[in-house]
């Protein structure tokens, strides 16, 4: 009887483990995963008065196309055609106002088991700089909501595309943090 309880307990634990496991492959369409694998040339701090660098850009973003089944066969039809990307912002400080999101079209092909480097993608454009709270830094030298001269933002990229076989693909969001000053 004790062995039956032990076996039953082990089976129940295994079932809970499997049911509780939500891997990324379960939530995305298709047979591949689009991933942001590398940022290069990330800023730590940006000054809005430095118009020579506007729009503000990331040096290189590397995207990689992973097959969900690495031991299975792959095909060129699993290559991903990029369609667009989105940038959203989240405050890391006490403020609640954020710049508006960026949605831009983009093109490129990320081959299955391959990489694509995207160079000089903007992370702040004039739309964000000319909207609160960043406009407050330019106009008043401080955020009028918090009274501080530094706004700490998480900048989050997400990329969207479609495999050549027609499956819609979205990358997981990838973020970095910047300090924005007047």
The residue ranges in which pLDDT falls below 50 over 5 or more consecutive positions are 16-26
Mean pLDDT: 86
Query: Which of globular, elongated, flat, extended, rod-shaped describes the shape?
Result: elongated
Helix content: 10-25%
Cα distance spanning the termini: 73 Å
Most strands sheet = 7 strands, mixed
Question: How many E strands?
Answer: 10
Give the C-alpha Rg: 22 Å
Features:
alpha+beta, three-stranded antiparallel β-sheet, 182 residues
Describe this structure in words.
The protein has three helices and ten strands. It has 182 residues and is α+β, with helices and mostly antiparallel strands. The longest helix has 19 residues, at 2-20. 18% of the residues are buried.
Topology:
Blueprint lengths: L1 H19 L11 E9 L4 E3 L8 E12 L12 E12 L10 E4 L3 E2 L4 E10 L1 H4 L4 H7 L10 E13 L4 E3 L3 E8 L1
Parallel strand pairs: 2-10
Antiparallel strand pairs: 1-3, 3-7, 4-5, 4-6, 4-8, 8-9, 8-10
Short characterization:
The chain is an alpha+beta fold and 182 residues long.
